[in-house]
Automatic annotation (TrEMBL):
GO terms for biological process: cell division; cell wall organization; peptidoglycan biosynthetic process; regulation of cell shape; UDP-N-acetylgalactosamine biosynthetic process. The keyword Cell division applies. The gene is murAB_3. Pathway: Cell wall biogenesis; peptidoglycan biosynthesis. Residues 7-404 form the Enolpyruvate transferase domain. It is found in: Cytoplasm. UDP-N-acetyl-alpha-D-glucosamine binds at residues 92, 121-125, 304, 326. It catalyses: phosphoenolpyruvate + UDP-N-acetyl-alpha-D-glucosamine = UDP-N-acetyl-3-O-(1-carboxyvinyl)-alpha-D-glucosamine + phosphate. Its main location: cytoplasm. One of its GO terms (molecular function) is UDP-N-acetylglucosamine 1-carboxyvinyltransferase activity. It comes from the Bacteria. This is UDP-N-acetylglucosamine 1-carboxyvinyltransferase. Its EC number is 2.5.1.7. It comes from Paenibacillus solanacearum. Keywords: Cell cycle, Cell division, Cell shape, Cell wall biogenesis/degradation, Cytoplasm, Peptidoglycan synthesis, Pyruvate, Transferase.
Length: 417
């Protein structure tokens, strides 16, 4: 295994190109198997989760060709087969195969999801949606077996605003008989991205991005070409790192509107932000105000940017309160930050963060965004080298990390553990 070495204290300066959104890509790839002919995806991020999905689709008989940030998925030879173990256990979002295979074949057997382990992550709302569409769902030795003679449109109210459940139901409903409405749907940009792909394939979906999505089922879907939206979480992480190192960074190829909540919070702290059409410039300042942050569903402040923000808040004077209303225990990175000298205590869903200098230490990433928080923290520490193990978690969400940070002037390198 590798570890990341960071000699911090250097302001990040320059421009970083943001890649396609991970949380779109790992829904768009399974969505493509609903088509009868080839689907081309552009602006694909080069991430391990994307490679795992390539293997999953190949196991199902699709042909998948990769060329840099382009993927062509030809599902014509696709077969429905049980996937109780193996690669499905490597990433949580393998659950999108349930909706896609159910929509295409009326049947799916998929092992219960793996992935980031910061807290139990149920899929009861996904199952509620599949059953509403007329499927029988049984748990067979840790794999979900889902079967429907004929999927029929239904009115589904989500008890919890869930990105995954909203997308999974959309996938299955796209080829059901009749109309499905999803009430209390999640509104993340990645949901709009999946609906855009499905509509380009011939689906009839309206209202994606609002709390009510209407899907009129169609008999079949065809191939198309689709460019993936930029990764707002990757972009936000670089914005936070720019502020934390008092740098001057332009994050390029982004949709500024997707980062509104973060931009507003950074400005509230005293960071100078300049928005252009497809880029955002972040200019760090010597002093920051402490602020309170509430992680909520979109368009609220993103829970995926809660962890990196906790590292920046150690640089603000005074006490900040960071509360996550989406996940109740997404603070596994806090003890690692405390090892770096951070003055943070966790009370329930909140982290109480006091400003103060950090120092270099050996720390470990326990999940993707926790790892990102440690990278931000390491970048702010002058003198000394921060060593981060668990880099494989970070590589799931940040492609070209060392190259991008080095191009911005950081002293970062990988070393075998
Ligand atoms: C997606 O996860 C993202 N992952 C997560 O990003 C992100 O943190 C999360 O949405 C929230 O924005 C992908 O898109 C692959 P949810 P997802 O269903 O869909 C509860 C990252 O770092 N819930 O919106 O799994 C759940 O426990 C990852 O890139 C149920 O109770 O999240 C959570 O508290 C981490 N029952 C809340 O809803 C369900 O059936 C939101 O979860 C489903 C979810």
């Amino acid at each position: 295994m590798e570890k990341l070495m960071i000699a911090g204290g250097r302001p990040l300066r320059g421009t970083v190109q943001i890649s396609g959104a991970k949380n779109s890509a790992i829904a768009l790839i399974p969505a493509a198997i609903l088509a009868e002919t080839a689907v081309t995806l552009d602006n694909l991020p080069l991430l391990s989760d994307v490679s795992i999905y390539t293997e999953l689709l190949t196991e199902l008989g699709a042909t998948v060709e990769r060329d840099h940030d382009q993927m062509v998925i030809d599902p014509r030879q696709l077969v429905s087969k049980p996937m109780p173990n193996g690669n499905v256990k490597k990433l949580r979002a393998s659950y999108y195969l349930m909706g896609a295979l159910l929509g295409r074949f009326g049947e799916a057997t998929i092992g219960m999801p793996g992935g980031c382990n910061f807290e139990p992550r149920p899929i009861d709302q996904h199952i509620k949606g599949f059953e509403a569409l007329g499927a029988q769902v049984t748990n067979e030795n840790g794999a979900l077996h889902i079967k429907a003679k004929q999927l029929r449109g239904a009115k589904i109210y989500l008890d919890v605003v869930s990105v995954g459940a909203t997308i999974n139901i959309m996938l299955a409903a796209s080829r059901a008989k009749g109309v499905t409405t999803i009430e209390n749907a999640a509104k993340e940009p990645e949901i709009i991205d999946v609906a855009t792909l499905l509509n380009s394939m011939g689906a009839k979906i309206k209202g994606a991005g609002t709390e009510t999505i209407r899907i009129e089922g169609v008999d079949n879907l065809h191939g198309c070409r689709h460019s993936i939206i930029p990764d707002r979480i990757q972009a936000g992480t670089y914005m936070i790192a720019a502020a934390a190192t008092r740098g001057d960074v332009i994050v390029d190829s982004v949709i500024p509107k997707h980062l509104e909540a973060l931009t507003a919070k950074l400005q509230e702290m005293g960071v100078h932000i300049y928005e252009m059409d497809e880029s955002i410039r972040v200019v760090g300042q010597p002093e920051y105000m402490s602020v309170d942050v509430k992680a909520l569903v979109y368009p609220g402040y993103a829970t995926d940017l809660q962890s990196p923000m906790s590292s920046l808040l150690t640089q603000a004077s005074g006490v900040s309160v960071l509360t996550d209303y989406v996940y109740s225990n997404r603070f596994k990175h806090i003890p690692e930050l405390v090892r770096m000298g951070a003055k943070i205590r966790v009370e329930g869903r909140s982290a109480i963060i006091e400003g103060g200098m950090l120092s270099a230490a050996k720390v470990k990433a326990t999940d993707l965004r926790a790892g990102a928080a440690l990278v931000v923290a390491g970048l702010t520490v002058p003198g000394g080298i921060t060593e981060i193990t668990g880099v494989e978690y970070i590589d799931r969400g940040y492609d070209h990390l060392v190259a991008n940070l080095s191009n911005l002037g950081a002293e970062v390198w990988r070393r075998d553990e």
